[in-house]
Amino acid sequence: MEPRRSGLTLRVEPGRTLLDVVREAVPGVAYSCEEGWCGTRETKVLAGAPAHHDSVLGEDERASRTTTMICVGRAHGPRLVLDG
Ligand code: FES
Question: pTM of the entire structure?
Fold first, then answer.
């Protein structure tokens, strides 16, 4: 995972969430439910294919692959570039 604005490249091991890894690298990141239903941790996707596991996004938003909830979302493929 690569949060573009921060310039960081972060490795997400199996069993961890994108949010877990971002929180370690960027203290103070806002989040709330961590279950994919509040929308607090919605993050813009700049490249790559997000695997959605939230209950916030509609079908059109999921299909657009332009945003994801990093508390529950994963990636299809080896790389996901986020705006963060
Ligand atoms: S923190 Fe609530 S949707 Fe991710």
Answer: 0.89
